Amino acid sequence: MATVTKQARKKIWALLALGAFTGLLLLPLFLSLPTGASGETPAPAAPTTPAAAKASDAKPVEKSRDVWYKTEGPVSGAPAPKTTDSLKDYPRYNFESRVLLWVANQQHLYYGSFVLAVPIFCMIVEYLGVITKDKALARKYDQLAYDFIKISLTAYSITAILGGILIFTYLTLYPTFFGYLSSIFRPVMHTYALLFVAESGTIYIYYYGWDKMREGFLKWIHVSMSVILNVIGTVLMMLANSWIAFMQSPAGVAGEGRYLGRDPYHAVESN
């Protein structure tokens, strides 16, 4: 009876820990959502004085059409900056700046793809080890997933380093362009950074907690953490993909580059 009580206590604590961990991971995402992200535009308050009514009539909402989808929306951003081939807009070293940017982007993509794919593979293999009835085969599945996630940790560190090089390349060699991009996607970029921190914590707990969660109900908690890890990684990929899609075929902006919409998540959806 004491053993059963002890096991039940472990399950309760494991469930509470998983719930708290999931809540902490999702908290930055909810905090970063702007007020108007729900899709409903709040109705403006009725003017209480003649002066207020006159001021509201004097400033109508400017609207324009999207360059890609041709949909109409309220203008809420500045036009794209007019740049020249000068050191002010495009600082450079003694070699082509695009080469450095291409190398940083390409290598970051390679390792980032590896970091995204390996945890998915580990999640599937670990789950197969949990549901199989052959104990010897289950141990092989579990060891295989463990070995692959160990490799992923090294690739994850390299990805973070290359990401730092990439962001500094944008800031130092393409400051005007990056300033325009961040003016549209600033809250999305903060969300990306918070989710990256959350993914870092999840993958390290997932790896270093492997031995502590090898059996029983704790093993299911461990498998659940792999699901959370892959959900965060997929959301990160979707956010970053919106920036790249905007660079290639910008949507959510008017012809002069002025942003249309209530919040930056409209730009993420459009791209």
Q: State Rg.
A: 24 Å
Run of helices and strands: HHEEHHHHH
Strand content: under 5%
Could you estimate the helical fraction of the residues in percent? 55-70%
Can you give a write-up of this model?
This protein is mainly α and 271 residues long. The protein has a domain at 95-271. The protein has seven helices and two strands; from the N terminus they run H-H-E-E-H-H-H-H-H. Strands 1-2 form a two-stranded antiparallel sheet. Helix 1 packs antiparallel against helix 5, helix 3 (97-131) runs antiparallel to helix 4 and helix 3 runs antiparallel to helix 6 (216-248).
Offer a quick outline of the entry.
Helices cover 69% and strands 2% of the residues. With 271 residues, it is mainly α.
Tell me the layout of helices and strands.
Blueprint (H helix, E strand, L loop, with lengths): L1 H31 L17 H9 L4 E3 L6 E3 L22 H35 L3 H39 L1 H34 L7 H33 L15 H7 L1
Antiparallel strand pairs: 1-2
Helix pairs in contact: 1-5, 1-6, 3-4, 3-6, 4-5, 5-6, 5-7, 6-7
Structure keywords:
single chain, 271 residues, mainly alpha, 69% helix
